[in-house]
Write a structure and sequence with these properties.
With 608 residues, the chain is of the alpha/beta class. The protein has helices at residues 14-21, 26-51, 56-72, 84-99, 105-125, 137-153, 156-160, 170-179, 186-205, 211-229, 239-242, 259-290, 297-313, 323-331, 338-353, 355-359, 363-377, 380-389, 391-406, 409-428, 477-493, 511-526, 538-546, 567-577, 588-597, 603-607; strands at 80-82, 319-321, 433-438, 450-454, 466-471, 473-475, 498-502, 506-509, 530-534, 558-559. The chain folds into two domains: 54-380, no CATH class; 433-599, 2-Layer Sandwich (Transcription Regulator spoIIAA), CATH 3.30.750. Helix content is 61%, strand content 7%. The strands form three sheets. It has a six-stranded mixed sheet, sandwiched between helices. Strands 1-2 form a two-stranded antiparallel ribbon. A two-stranded parallel sheet has the order 6-8. Helix 2 (26-51) runs parallel beside helix 4 (84-99), helix 5 packs across helix 12 (259-290) and helix 21 (477-493) runs parallel beside helix 22. The chain is elongated. Residues 603-608 have low confidence and may be disordered.
Amino acid sequence: MITPPSDNVALNPLPRLLKAANERAWRADAIAGLTVAVFAVPQAMAYAVLAGLPPVHGLYAAIVMSIFAALWGSSPFVNAGPTNTAALLTAAALAPLVTSGQVTALAGVFVLGVLAGAIRIIMGLLRMGWLVRFVPVPAFLGFIAAAELLIAFGQLHELLGVPVPTAALAPLRIIEVLIHIPQSDLRALALGLGTCGLLWLGGRYAKKLPMALIAALLAAFIAPWLERFFPDTQKVLLVRDIAAVPSSLPFLQLYFPSLEVWWAVLPGACAVAVIGLIEAVSIGQNLAHKHKNELNFNQEFFGQGMAQLGGALFGGVPGSGSFSRSSLLESNGAKTPYANIFFGIFTATVLLLTPRIIEQIPLAALAGLLFYTGLKMFNPAAIMQVWRTSRPDFAVLAITFLVTFAGKIEWGFFIGIIVAMVIFLSRARLLQIYELVPHPQSAGTRGIRFDEISYTPGSKHESSGLVALALHGDLFFGLAHELRTQLAEIHRLQNPQFIIIRTRRAHSVDYSCWKALFDFAELFRQNGGTLILTGVRQDLKTVIENAKMQHVFPEDCIVAPTESAWGAFECGLEQIAGDIQDRTTLSPQWQEYFEQHFPAPTQNSTIA
């Protein structure tokens, strides 16, 4: 028997750290942490700019969130910190509030981070990790596809060196930027496209080199020379033009905005919390399967919540698990949670030792990094796979994409979930009820097979004194009316005296469907009929007893399941065989079946 993994949430991180220390993987974890830190520094800064904050707050998030997730998370590989989707959601949620002057950018990010962290922590403590199983993949793919394109196209004005677009909707902002192409700044374009080119070359020919860092440093070196060649044009914007980079570690930063701000930020915080959890769990589960381990979803929820809360308290931008950094950490030999702790330490070291170098990085280079990352992460092959597999699921993906890209990004994912639920209910509302008739070629064998004839328009069902039925799937309230109607039609058109219902494949039955069965069975018995349920599990039998419906389904009308697939059903048929007075009322198939298996007693044997 397979023992499921524990879903408990450990609040004390010391046992996990002590166990990891015993693995003596310090050297491998340190190398992995240093490698990823070198790759991640420019990325974290770019995500902070995307969220609308000074670049240093991306480094704060990378330092604090990685360490907190290592302490309280479940996966040793998931690297928590700033991500593209979290940064985009943050910018979308806070832009109206910051623009209207209701809150400063730092205070808004603090509120959003605290709320998102609290939501994740509560979900972990309430053991809500099972909810991840019900997230429709098409909705997630549609959201990610739209988010990546928004990130890429959202950097066009920085790449071209044109004014920031003011339109409310993303498609209109893109058009507004394209109109200003003739006024492009060639220096910004050269720095941005040069960064994209170096990243492409690195991904193709030098995957082990930190090309993002190399491109950022090279852009910082080239920018002053470009100003010399173009002295009459506008100054190249650098990181220091947004805000100075302090040579200090993250420090506690508390803000106390009004309750109206907290309430206004809540929808965006929910989106950041939920989508971030899906990202983190997806990464952790994939890497856990690779190493033949199990991921505790609830613990990962709690760990991501603590990471987000810690990042907010120390001035970091909201984030979650990063696909690229986590995969890089694992592929570079990380063994234990200490790899993420080393990552945080090395990132802090970079901040302490090189703040003046960081300040010289052009914003156009960071825009190029985001533009390249957004286009690279966009996956049309996955979208086409959904199209070829299921058109309803593609509709979920498409609607999610359109709402996210052209409407409200913080609502796009949740709209996709609602659409997926509606499509699921439309599929599930089809009642799966079949008439069972003996297969003619199997007559004469004890292991007889039965044909299943669905009650669908155009199907043929003969009148018979015995009608055998099979119920499949989950019988929920949406099927109750159809179940009630179908049973009444069978009674009216096929005119049976005996009905036997096979419940072996009925996974669950809610009260609405039970009520339909109870009402029909009671009316059927009043008209002299006999209804037998076969394959009745103990949980279904308990429902009948608790509902006080033994007078409708007495003990002799309930057959428990057997190890054999058709054993209980055949026991029910055997029980009916002695009660059928006139077998000529049966359909030809059932007459042949009973003659083969339950021959009627001859007159001589009766006299004897």
